[in-house]
Design brief:
The complex is a heterodimer.
Chain A lengths: L1 H4 L4 H41 L7 E9 L10 E4 L5 E3 L5 E6 L5 E5 L6 E4 L8 E3 L9 E3 L4 E3 L7 E5 L11 H4 L7 E5 L8 E5 L12 E4 L2 E2 L20 E7 L2 H4 L10 E6 L8 E13 L8 H10 L13 H5 L3 E13 L3 E13 L6 E15 L4 E16 L2 H10 L23 H6 E19 L4 E20 L10 E23 L3 E24 L20 H4 L2 E20 L3 E12 L8 E12 L4 H4 L3 E15 L10 E5 L17 E6 L8 E14 L4 E13 L1 E5 L11 E5 L3 E16 L5 E16 L6 E5 L9 E5 L7 E5 L1 E4 L5 E3 L13 E6 L4 E11 L2 E11 L2 E4 H6 L2 H5 L27 E3 L2 E13 L1 H4 L7 E15 L22 E2 L6 E11 L1
Parallel strand pairs in A: 1-7, 13-16, 46-50
Antiparallel strand pairs in A: 1-4, 2-3, 2-5, 5-6, 8-9, 10-15, 11-12, 13-14, 15-16, 17-18, 17-51, 18-19, 19-20, 20-21, 21-22, 22-23, 23-24, 24-25, 25-26, 26-27, 27-28, 28-29, 29-32, 30-31, 32-33, 33-36, 34-35, 36-37, 37-44, 38-39, 40-43, 41-42, 44-45, 45-48, 46-47, 48-49, 49-51
Chain B lengths: L1 H16 L19 H14 L1 H4 L5 H7 L19 H7 L7 H23 L7 H24 L2 E3 L8 E3 L1 H15 L14 H19 L10 H17 L22 E5 L10 H4 L25 H11 L11 E2 L12 E2 L8 E4 L1 E2 L1 E3 L1 E2 L2 E2 L7 E5 L1 E2 L4 E5 L1 E2 L17 E3 L18 E5 H15 L3 H13 L15 H12 L5 H7 L24 H6 L14
Antiparallel strand pairs in B: 1-2, 3-16, 4-6, 5-11, 6-15, 7-14, 8-11, 9-10, 12-13
Helix pairs in contact in B: 2-6, 2-7, 6-7, 7-8, 7-9, 8-9, 9-10, 9-13, 10-13, 13-14, 13-15
The chains are: A mainly beta, B mainly alpha.
Chain lengths: 1020, 560
């Protein structure tokens, strides 16, 4: 333990410890059976003797096992009923507890198992075997402003516990649930540490950016605005602190979040302490990452041959450089997490500190996160008043290399050039680019401080009526420095840009929950009010021309020598949004068979126009538990429930200020003009935005029909859902009919335009438990989804601007009627003419190829998503394997489009074999944007494989200090089966045009890593 | 008890929340208050002009008026540059579509300028400063000028006085009449001496002359031949006479001085975009035709050309034929040599202050500052080393920057070095970044054009050959800084057209000229399209889409 706390250099020590333990573990494996056998006989005795503090108390000990397998249950809670006294079982399933008297009752509880209560009586040894719960029916599901059980749910909600999460190096909560939830598509923008994750629940319902679900952390609704830098704002959350994630998918579940529910809601609950149960955990891991797949550009020898073969001029400097190797590295990530929790009579708490120091596989790419959390619950006034406090503070530091120039250089630089010169400096060559030079000169560092706190007292006014107040603050500030060092050769003047971002999100909520229980019926009613204010501010400054060889500009910007208004005009923005809401929900249950839920939320937002300040979002859903009916009682069904729901939700993620006209006065190149030969320029007064007082939210109307089932005593369970989500009132920046307008566009809702997401989700889980203790789980989910745009006023809404020389102004995505969002709207490549020049299909038959010959060529949105996971547990071992995949989607390989064609090779730039794939292609052929570079994006990935082993601490003789030791090895991204030949088919380089989202474009995106994580978990 | 708790809780709710009316609080934008009438007037007229530098950019009005003609061609350079989804090839071959971004951007900018004019027209009468009356005339005149641009480019104009109503769309004769009446209405209230950057009486006379000269085209756009009415020609002569006889304007002795950094004070300019290095100026006219390995400013090793358009061989041959057997450079408008090394190979060292690149049409091997590893080479004495240039920045260090006559869309014809280039405007030395911060005024109308318009009107009216010849020779003879071009001995419409090409090349009048002279459907390098419908550009698809909720309001031009 001391070793872990002593700081520098922890990596070596932890690594050494890890390795030592790893070497030790194989003999342990074989020795364990004997140890276990003897432990069973002896553990009760040894514990009874070692623990008795007060003579008046009775000491009870025993062992808790799985009724099916006889395996010990580790961490099972044992509580004296009616008190805060409790403990939990150690790694061998043993516990010891003192009870006040013989009439005490012990309550044994474990997630996934049925609770058992046992009266102590005169016994001093109580061994208990717990039965697994049939299909987790009493599993708690968090639903927003409350919770319910899986059995009583009428909406489409998926609840994931921490044991279900993806393992390995995790930066943000979206990664924890990738592939785990049917209907949820998580696409990482790139392989960069902390990269943005594009998450959509049941498909995008708008064409704009801002189709992200609402995230609610312990009751605090988060704002999706960037907190600065080029990384995911949700990176601040330490995944180890997360207890569960609940994904609300259909409108009947999300309508309680009204105008923010249209894209789904993700509720994150962090870990809480338990009174009477002390836990102290250390979690450490070392990750080793490497480039999963390099682009197969020609090696020096191949390059010599191929450049000559295509008739290019070869400049051969005799070296053999693998440029991709030069810019990448074996990256190490260490993660340390220390948490403890517990509680006494009226107080319980959980606290943790975590450090994750992650190296990216590109050089100079780092993401470090330091986080701390305290969750406290205190009860007062005879337990009528409960006070919950959650406090999370995170410091994130992100350093990014110049990714585009690094990758662009590495895949095209001449491999016969040496990487370094005789002095060890990056080799400087005329006319070409050595990617190591920008690596040396450019730096992009962001530091973010984010603190989230909420305090929520709840007061039991009567037995049935509870009032709860929730006050939360989410405050973050960040600084991003983009530094360019000055340099003599090549000549660079140096520049420093600094961006400050401030985000402040405050929330006040009041709500009453009333519960009425009668013999056959149950009613829960919720009534509340919420007020939220979000403030975002950004400021930037810059300075140019730094002296050569001076200190780094970030440490003293004052040494810059040039400030001009055009190059260094400070910039900034600030916006403030307010939301006021009234909400209500009624759950009614009759005879445990018939369930009804109705919600309504009235949301007012300062983003909405004066004529539409408030929107009403209702929903209703019902459930029928068929398995409770007499006619099905004798069937194979442990549970069978039919659900149906309907509701309306909104999306208010529209730009600020668009309801108001803007009439500004400023001296700028586009508003001012010299009126006199000399003297200051007048501040030009101009409209830059048209008012639209009618603007409102996008409306999404969703119907969901679902079936939850569980057969053969829970061995096979699953969920089947059909959904139809129709979004209309689509927010678009449109062009007025009369083009003579102060601003070329204005924001409006297009009422007739619809975006429909329709699909079917199926989840299946099979559980098998053998008599010899082997447990085997096989699960999976599959989603079929179709997206369609209709009645758009535009013939095409372009997005996805192409990158690369010669490709300016070309667009890749285009949204047109009767096609899905993410459609690729391209010229159809048909081959080459007799001169070896590209030919395209002349769709309109006018004899020339123009933009009018573009056709929809498929979409970037998968029509099928699937996941397969299996786990195997035997004795102390457990193995989890998790595959995920998508199909029906395409990826536009803009990287290849801009880099891999014959003409480039003939100019002495490196390419892959893709450039010479067509022998007929002329070396003079350009490569415009077309279906030539549109590729199949389907993939199947072994996302996660984790092997764990729980050591027997008693056999090691350390059980007095350490109650559990767990070793694990996790592989992330172990293989991908795909036809796509870029770095990775899961990619989404942001090429948004005017706020219209782009999809499925790959342009020099940070490559994905393959990672091995070795983990150590110690419980004290 | 219960009620008490509820009351406490409810009052707590109110205390904590107060009440919000959810009115959006705008923090980062200022709306204008507290201005004096003079400040308000200045502030409302400035934006009317402020988009001109943008409109007159290489990719906007220049591309539409020049790359569509025989004066400029922009191939897909080396297969890597200026590909731009084929828009420059389409512009040159008259196959552009309604999605062309340059056609769209030009449209948007002009119409935004027009809407700012309307805002000013509505605001200025409420201001009591005496200057408001002049500004009102300028705003209304600029609205007419913007209408002239949309009529010429897109074949229609938008008429409205109130920003909150939908414009009336006019075409043909009605459009010409509207513009004419507007210009006539404002002329009395305009100043004479606030040019060339602002609209003056002289500028309006010039615009009226230009309107009448092209009226035949605007009235019957797709005619197989245009009928130039004598009364129109009389008006052209009347307004050009007014300008010439005002004595306010003067032909420059040195042709390229008209395009120098300091041309704001050049008396040849009548109406121009007033660029200032510290406000709105750009150097795009100067840099975009140059080679990527030509560096015009010793202080800026990053300020290079872009290998943009060159002139077509057809256009070049008009010079050759006119001066054969002499080289066209005998005409000082064709070329001006500023670097001695071109004629004296020993002049390899030039003081930085004296380094100026050649002007006019650039041919053959280019010499200039040599950039190696990002810095310019220098002579031992610290002066700048000049020498022959190679395409180093293109990773083609063995390919000389040797401009060839041949330029077309073939592989050989679209290499980085093809085509003779144009360096008419000076590259601003006040620039602090090299490419931005231009200060030369971009000319909309100058006196030489006025003389040539008068000559053309006399010719079209009939019987005015001698007088027209005199006008043309007046312009020729005025360039006395060096040997002026020899006078012509006869005059005809074809010769006048040729002369306009020599005098006004790359000044964004070529397309209009070609249409008026019936040459726009001719064949030239890479251009064979003879479709008369291409005399106007398509209305941008975005505008058509935007108007789709008002059926019949905005019709796409025929042929698109």
């Amino acid at each position: 333990m001391k070793q872990i706390y002593s700081s520098p250099p922890p990596l070596l020590r932890i690594g050494a410890l890890l390795l030592a333990l790893l070497w030790l573990s194989p003999p342990q494996v074989y020795g364990q059976r004997a140890e276990l056998a003897s432990a069973r006989d002896s553990d009760t005795r040894s514990h009874t003797t070692s623990s008795s503090k007060k003579a008046v108390d009775i000491s009870v000990s025993g062992r808790v096992t799985d009724a099916g397998t006889n395996d010990p249950l580790v961490g099972c809670t044992v509580v004296v009923k009616g008190t805060q006294r409790g403990t939990n079982t150690d790694a061998s399933g043993n516990y010891t507890i003192t009870v006040p008297n013989e009439s005490s009752v012990l309550v044994f509880g474990y997630i996934g198992y049925e609770k058992q209560e046992v009266a102590v009586g005169s016994r001093s040894t109580i061994n208990i075997s717990l039965k697994t719960e049939a299909s987790n029916l009493s599993q708690v599901v968090v639903i927003g402003y409350g919770s319910t059980t899986k059995k009583d749910m009428t909406g489409a909600v998926k609840s994931l516990k921490s044991t279900d999460f993806n393992q390995g190096i995790i930066n943000s909560p979206e990664q924890l649930l990738q592939g785990k939830v049917a209907g949820v598509n998580v696409v990482s923008a790139s392989g960069e540490p902390g990269a943005n994750q594009n998450i959509s629940i049941r498909g995008p319902g708008g064409v704009r950016t801002g189709s992200t679900p609402l995230f609610v952390l312990d009751g605090m609704a988060l704002d999706n605005s960037s907190t600065g830098g080029a990384i995911n704002p949700l990176n601040f959350l330490n995944p180890q602190d997360i207890e569960s994630i609940d994904v609300l998918k259909d409108a009947s579940a999300t309508a309680i979040y009204g105008s923010r529910g249209a894209n789904g809601v993700i509720l994150i609950t962090t870990k809480k302490g338990k009174a009477g149960v002390s836990t102290f955990n250390y979690n450490g891991s070392l990750g080793i990452s490497n480039l999963a797949r390099a682009l197969p550009v020609f090696t020096a020898d191949e390059f010599r041959k191929q450049v000559t073969a295509v008739g290019g001029v070869l400049e051969d400097r005799g070296a053999s450089t693998d440029w991709q190797k030069e810019i990448t590295r074996t990256a190490y990530t260490q993660n340390h997490n220390l948490s403890f929790g517990g509680g006494a009579d009226k107080l319980s708490y959980y606290a943790s500190v975590g450090v994750q120091k992650q190296q990216g596989i590109l050089k100079n790419s780092d993401l470090n996160r330091y986080s701390g959390r305290i969750n406290v619950t205190q009860r007062f006034l005879e337990d009528r008043l409960t006070l919950d406090v959650n406090l999370n503070a995170t410091y994130t530091q992100n350093q990014r290399p110049p990714i585009v120039s690094l990758l662009g250089g590495a895949i095209s630089a001449n491999p016969t050039f040496p990487a370094y010169d005789d002095k060890g400096e990056p080799f400087q060559y005329q006319g070409g680019t050595n990617p190591l030079i920008p690596l040396k000169l450019e730096k992009d560092i962001t530091t973010i401080n984010r603190v989230i706190a909420n305090i929520s007292p709840s007061f039991k006014i009567t037995k049935d009526l509870v009032y709860k107040l929730n006050i939360g603050v989410d405050n973050s500030s960040s600084v991003r420095d983009i530094q360019l060092l000055s340099n003599a050769v090549p000549q660079v003047d140096g520049r420093l840009e600094t961006y400050h971002t401030y985000n402040r999100n405050t929330l006040v909520e009041n709500y009453f929950t009333y519960t009425l229980t009668r013999s056959k019926s149950n009613l829960t009613a919720l009534l509340g009010h919420s007020y939220q204010k979000i403030f975002v501010q950004g400021r930037n400054t810059s300075i140019n021309k730094f002296p050569l060889g001076s200190i780094e500009p970030i440490y003293n910007p004052g040494i810059g020598q040039e400030l001009t208004l055009v190059n260094n005009r400070p910039g900034g923005f600030a916006l403030e949004n307010e939301l006021q809401s009234f909400f209500s929900r009624v759950n009614y249950q009759y005879n445990d068979k018939y369930l009804l839920t109705a919600t309504v939320r009235a949301d007012g937002s300062s983003k909405f126009g004066a004529n539409n300040k408030y929107g009403i979002f209702p929903s209703i859903s019902a459930g029928w538990r068929l398995s409770e009916e007499e006619f099905l009682k004798s069937g194979p069904f442990t549970d069978l429930k039919l659900r149906a729901g309907w509701g309306k939700t909104g999306n208010q993620e529209i730009p600020s200020k668009i309801t108001q006209a803007l009439f500004t006065s400023q001296v700028s190149s586009s508003t001012s003009y010299p009126l006199l030969p000399t003297g200051p320029y007048p501040a030009g007064t101009s409209y830059s935005r048209l008012a639209n007082p009618d603007i409102q939210w996008e409306v999404s109307t969703q119907t969901d029909i679902g079936l939850d089932f569980s057969l053969f005593n829970g061995a096979l369970s699953g969920t089947l859902d059909y959904f139809n989500k129709v979004s209309n009132n689509i927010l678009l920046e449109v062009i007025p009919a009369d083009p003579v307008q102060p601003a070329g566009t204005f924001w409006t809702n297009v009422p007739d335009m619809t975006i429909v997401n329709k699909g079917v989700e199926l989840e299946l889980n099979y559980r098998y438990t053998a008599a010899n203790g082997l447990r085997f789980d096989l699960g999976g989910n599959v989603t079929f989804i179709n997206n369609l745009v209709s009645n758009s006023p535009y013939s095409v809404i372009p997005s996805g601007s192409a990158s690369g020389s010669g490709l300016t102004s070309a667009t890749i995505n285009g949204y047109i009627n009767e096609q899905p969002i993410g459609t690729f709207f391209l010229k159809e490549f048909t081959g080459f003419n007799d001169k070896g020049i590209n030919t395209f299909r002349d769709v309109d038959g006018d004899g020339i190829i123009t933009d009018k010959d573009r056709v929809p060529m498929g979409t970037a949105l998968p029509t099928r998503q699937y996941n397969l996971n299996t786990s195997l547990a035997y004795k102390g071992f457990d193995l989890i394997v998790n595959f995920n995949g998508v199909a029906g989607n395409k990826v536009y390989d803009n990287t290849a489009n801009a880099n891999f064609y014959k003409l480039r090779l003939s100019k002495g730039l490196n390419t892959t074999a893709e450039a010479i794939a067509f022998p007929d292609e002329s070396i003079n052929n350009s490569a415009p944007v077309s279906s030539r570079y549109l590729k199949d994006g389907a993939f199947f990935r072994l996302n996660n494989l984790s092997l764990g082993y729980n050591l027997n601490t008693k056999a090691l003789g350390v059980d007095r200090w350490i109650s559990g030791i767990r070793l694990s090895a996790t592989g992330q991204n172990l293989f991908v089966i795909t036809n796509y030949d870029g770095y990775d088919p899961e990619v989404n380089t942001d090429r948004t045009i005017n706020g219209i989202s782009s999809y499925g474009i790959d342009y020099l995106s940070y490559p994905k890593a393959r990672t091995l994580v070795l983990g150590l978990n110690l419980t004290f | 008890m219960k009620k008490k708790y509820i009351a406490i809780a409810l009052s707590g709710m109110l205390v904590l929340n107060g009440c919000t009316n959810l009115m959006e609080n705008v923090l980062d934008e200022t709306s204008v208050t507290g201005l004096s009438d003079r400040q308000a007037a200045d502030g409302i007229i400035a934006p009317v002009y402020a988009l001109l530098p943008n409109i007159f950019q290489h990719t906007n009005y220049f591309a539409l008026q020049e790359i569509s003609t025989d004066e400029a061609i922009l191939p897909y350079r080396g297969g890597t540059d200026w590909g731009d989804n084929g828009i420059y090839l389409a512009m040159h071959t008259h196959t552009n579509t309604s999605t062309d971004p340059n056609v769209r951007n030009t449209w948007n900018l002009i119409l935004q300028g027009m809407s700012r004019s309307i805002t000013a027209i509505n605001t200025l009468p409420t201001l009591n400063d005496p200057v408001a009356k002049t500004y009102l005339a300028e705003a209304r005149g600029m609205r007419a000028y913007y209408s002239m641009l949309t009529l010429d480019l897109y074949g229609l104009i938008f008429v409205k006085d109130n920003l909150n109503t939908n414009s009336k769309i006019l075409r043909g004769e009605q459009a010409v009449e509207y513009i004419k009446n507007e210009l006539l209405a404002v002329e009395p209230n305009l100043e004479t001496n606030v040019g060339p950057g602002r609209l003056t009486k002289g500028a309006v006379w010039g615009l009226l002359a230009r309107l009448h000269l092209n009226a035949a085209v605007y009235r019957d756009r797709f005619a197989s031949s245009f009928t130039f009415k004598p009364e129109d020609m009389d008006k052209v002569i009347e307004y050009t006479d007014k300008i010439i006889s005002s004595g306010q304007y003067q032909l420059a002795k040195e042709y390229f001085s008209v395009f120098n950094d300091n041309n704001h004070d050049n008396k040849e300019l009548i109406f121009a975009v007033d660029q200032r290095a510290d406000l709105n100026g750009h150097n795009r006219m100067a840099y975009f035709s140059l080679s990527g390995d030509q560096f015009p400013l010793p202080a800026f090793p990053a300020a290079n050309g872009t290998d943009g358009p060159g002139i077509t061989p057809d256009y070049y041959q008009t010079w050759v034929k006119a001066y054969a057997p002499q080289d066209p450079s005998v005409d000082p408008r064709f070329h001006k040599q500023n670097l001695e090394i071109y004629t004296n190979p020993d002049a390899t060292c030039v003081a930085a202050d004296n380094f100026h690149i050649n002007r006019g049409i650039l041919r053959g091997q280019q010499f200039g500052l040599i950039r190696k590893n990002g810095a310019f080479l220098k002579c031992a004495d610290g002066r700048m080393l000049v020498g022959p240039l190679f395409n180093d920045s293109r990773n083609r260090p063995t390919l000389p920057v040797n401009f060839t006559e041949k330029i077309d869309f073939t592989v050989a014809g679209s290499d980085y070095n093809t085509g003779y280039r144009v360096e008419k405007y000076e590259f601003s030395r006040k620039s602090v970044s090299g490419r931005n911060f231009g200060e030369a005024d971009i000319i909309i109308l100058r006196l030489a054009d006025v003389y040539l318009m008068r000559a053309e009107a006399k010719l079209r009216k009939g019987g005015g050959e001698a007088s027209a010849l005199a006008d043309v020779n007046t312009v020729r003879a005025s360039r006395t800084a060096t040997t002026p071009p020899p006078p012509l001995s006869s005059m005809s419409l074809d010769l006048l057209y040729r002369e306009r090409g020599f005098e006004l090349y790359w000044e964004m009048v070529r397309r209009t000229d070609m249409i008026r002279f019936g040459k726009y459907e001719d064949t030239w390098t890479e251009k064979t399209n003879t479709d008369k419908q291409k005399r106007v550009f398509p209305i941008p698809q975005t505008a058509i889409d935007g108007a789709s909720n008002l059926p019949g309001y905005l019709q796409q031009n025929a042929g698109y």
